[in-house]
Q: What sequence folds into this?
């Protein structure tokens, strides 16, 4: 069954059109919903949750209509909002247990699920402390836990890595990936950071100004010749010349040199050339064909940042 | 940002069996209750919330101190009931005791403080900390939310109001030599306390929650409740006193808009007592005040529901 289908879905906020005749059909998986701030990501998620009604058009989640079957949908979705949503003077366990009960879990089951889910998101002894004393990373984990506690079929995460430092971000993305792949829960991750989507998602939906930009499995974007990026402090131009002389396909990109990684011998070539020219090497890194390259053409001014 | 994180799998996820300590994620196959259960859960949470349970000690201070002060006079009378009974027996004078019908009239300001402190506590926090979307994406509609919150505060108020009535009843019974006969005597006098407490509880809960729901800031909500109660008591009184000299016959009808005076009038009807001229002026009957109180509760409940229907989430 399709995760979600929409047809000419439109949402008007007075003069502003947040969504403009959006047509979608998405299968379950880990779906990345990407777009700049204000592109309509949150609006789409809120419509799918039945929090706000569409102005016109139709949308469904797992075959349930968002207007007619709101209550059915709410039994099967978990929602992690973008904004803070935790009262500071409540203990994390109590809060998540309460939310489990609001989702209909009996008292004991709510307690057990809470303990399990908090352990899953990586909160152990801290879970008996008041949320107000938590770091941003821990708060995001509690937000994820409350979305997972009733074991939803679909998880809607709105900017789950908001405000996290790089380590916290990687941990959160790892958590999302595990939730999607190991538990078989369909996850929709809204983000304005393409790099994150690239890391965890299997399917990509890009919207811009309420319009659908792209909708395809992520492999469509990334199945290309691997690229080796060599960053040097200076002499990138000389490096390109020397590599091209050895028969490699290389081009300069600022301080970096991008090389088509056609064979493993290329690593040796790079090493030799850098050593011969005595270049100050910063890093060598393998890159996949990256989403941002594709967006650069499609949405030049959309404000999507890497 | 770099290429995909190669370490993006946890040890538990990468080994197929997991470790013996980690049972892995298990799906929940158990029972799922419906919306009535969700409402009940929210009601219980709200009731705990009003009294500060599950929250720091500071959250318990205001409700317990105010409820304690409100019950204190009745509890005192209960504690000294034997002394009072002796004095009545020896001197033959009737003691001037606290009465069911005038108890709220004497100490209503403590109940007002209670709603000023606790109604914002109940609804403003959910708005301020943006918890509402978490409720509204679960088995909890907006109307159900509003009704649960109303139920919590009304129940808390009902308990607060009933405790001194019970204390008065027990005290009055203990003052009499024949306990069983005393229960029979006192019960008809005491029983209207139950509808009286219920009426006050629903009216004040509806009023204070409706006003609180308009601001996420507790302070503004508290000021709003105080301002409403004071103004709606003062303005009709002022117009009435002007109207008396000006000969405006209609001016006492404005007392029907007062929140507290109307309740005091309504209690006179419930306890079958004459209106106390000290509190209630004009030619209106106790029955009219009862009707006004019930109507105001209805209006405020409607406002509360309207507000939550329109609340952006």
A:
């Amino acid at each position: 069954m399709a995760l979600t289908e929409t047809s000419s879905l439109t949402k008007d906020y007075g003069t502003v059109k947040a969504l403009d005749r959006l047509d979608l059909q998405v299968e379950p998986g880990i779906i990345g919903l990407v777009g700049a701030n204000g592109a309509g990501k949150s609006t789409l998620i809120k419509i799918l949750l039945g929090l706000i009604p569409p102005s016109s058009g139709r949308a469904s989640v797992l075959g349930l209509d968002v207007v007619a079957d709101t209550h059915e949908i709410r039994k099967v979705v978990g929602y992690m909002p973008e904004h803070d949503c935790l009262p500071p003077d409540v203990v994390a366990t109590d809060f998540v247990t309460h939310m489990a009960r609001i989702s209909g879990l009996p008292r004991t089951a709510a307690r057990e699920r809470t303990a399990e889910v908090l352990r899953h998101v990586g909160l152990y002894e801290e879970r008996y402390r008041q949320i107000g004393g938590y770091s941003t990373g821990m708060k995001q984990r509690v937000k994820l836990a409350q979305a997972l506690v009733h074991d939803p079929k679909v998880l809607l995460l709105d900017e789950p890595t908001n405000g996290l430092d790089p380590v916290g971000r990687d941990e959160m993305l790892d958590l999302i990936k595990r939730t999607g792949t190991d538990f078989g829960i369909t996850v929709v991750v809204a983000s304005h950071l393409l790099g994150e989507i690239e890391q965890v998602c299997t399917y990509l939906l890009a919207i811009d100004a309420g319009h659908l930009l792209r909708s395809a499995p992520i492999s469509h974007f990334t199945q290309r010749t691997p690229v080796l990026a060599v960053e040097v402090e200076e002499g990138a131009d000389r490096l390109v010349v020397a590599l091209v002389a050895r028969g490699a396909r290389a081009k300069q990109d600022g301080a970096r040199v991008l090389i088509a990684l056609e064979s493993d011998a290329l690593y040796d070539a790079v090493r030799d050339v850098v050593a011969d020219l005595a270049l100050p090497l910063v890093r060598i890194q393998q890159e996949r064909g990256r989403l941002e390259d594709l967006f650069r053409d499609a949405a030049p001014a959309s404000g999507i940042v890497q | 940002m770099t290429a995909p994180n190669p370490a993006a799998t946890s040890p538990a996820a990468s080994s197929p069996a997991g470790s013996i300590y980690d049972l892995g994620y298990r799906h929940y196959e158990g029972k799922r209750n419906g919306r009535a259960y969700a409402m009940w859960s929210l009601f219980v949470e709200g009731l705990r919330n009003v009294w500060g349970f599950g929250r720091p000690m500071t959250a318990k201070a205001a409700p317990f101190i105010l409820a304690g002060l409100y019950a204190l006079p009745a509890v005192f009378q209960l504690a000294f009931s034997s002394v009072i009974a002796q004095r009545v027996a020896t001197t033959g004078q009737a003691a001037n005791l606290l009465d069911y019908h005038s108890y709220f009239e004497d100490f209503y300001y403590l109940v007002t403080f209670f709603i000023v402190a606790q109604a914002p506590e109940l609804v403003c926090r959910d708005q301020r900390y943006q918890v509402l979307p978490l409720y509204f994406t679960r088995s909890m509609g907006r109307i159900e939310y509003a009704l649960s919150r109303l139920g919590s505060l009304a129940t808390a108020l009902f308990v607060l109001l009933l405790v001194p009535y019970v204390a008065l009843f027990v005290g009055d019974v203990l003052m009499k030599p024949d306990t069983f006969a005393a229960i029979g005597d006192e019960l008809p006098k005491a029983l209207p306390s139950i509808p009286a407490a219920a009426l006050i509880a629903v009216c004040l809960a509806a009023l204070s929650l409706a006003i609180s729901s308009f601001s996420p800031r507790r302070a503004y909500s508290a000021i709003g409740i105080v301002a409403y109660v004071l103004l709606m008591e003062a303005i009709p009184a002022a117009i009435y006193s002007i109207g008396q000299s000006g000969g405006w016959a209609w001016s006492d009808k404005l007392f029907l808009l007062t929140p507290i005076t109307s309740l005091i009038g309504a209690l006179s009807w419930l306890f079958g007592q004459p209106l106390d001229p000290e509190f209630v002026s004009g030619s209106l009957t106790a029955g009219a005040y009862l009707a006004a109180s019930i109507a105001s509760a209805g209006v405020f409940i409607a406002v509360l529901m309207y507000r939550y229907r329109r609340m952006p989430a």
Remarks:
- Residues 1-19 of chain B have pLDDT under 50 and may be disordered.
